[in-house]
Amino acid sequence: MELSMFFLGLPTAAPVLVGWLVAVILAAIIVSRGGSAPEKLILSGFSIMLSRTILGIPIVGISSIVPYLADKYGLSLAEISLFFSITNFSLGFISLAGIICLIIGFWLGFRARRVQQVP
Predict the structure, then answer these.
(1) Which of 56, 95, 109, 110 has fewest C-beta within 10 Å?
(2) pTM of the model
(3) 38, 109 in Cβ contact below 8 A?
């Protein structure tokens, strides 16, 4: 049942998952060819966002069985919503870390290029 929950959320997350995967691969190629600190920071941001997408996939599957959880285990809707609130709050922090890495990486990259171009 756990694996089926993962596959329930996969169709909705597939385009985003493919996008982050392509971004991680391209950034890894750039870093392997001698990328500097901004490129490494961008790679870490892409990797964090990819991991956040992978961690968020089972949430869709779990949310589809809320009535089953409420009936079988006697959980109240307040307890179930608390679980989803904590989970989404944690995923939000992971997303925030990835976005911060991406913004700082791009900012440092553009700043370094501007300094090199101005004599």
Answers:
(1) 110
(2) 0.81
(3) yes
How many domains does the structure of the chain reveal? 1
What's the longest Cα–Cα distance across the chain?
A: 71
What is the span of the domain harbouring residue 69?
2-117
pLDDT in tens, the chain (119 residues): 556 666 777 788 889 999 999 999 999 999 999 888 899 999 999 999 999 999 888 887 777 777 777 788 888 888 888 888 898 999 999 999 999 999 999 999 888 777 666 55
3-state secondary structure the chain: CHHHHHHHHHHHHHHHHHHHHHHHHHHHHHHHCCCCHHHHHHHHHHHHHHHHHHHHHHHHHHHCCHHHHHHHHCCCHHHHHHHHHHHHHHHHHHHHHHHHHHHHHHHHHHHHHHHHHCC
Distance CA 104, CA 37 (A): 10
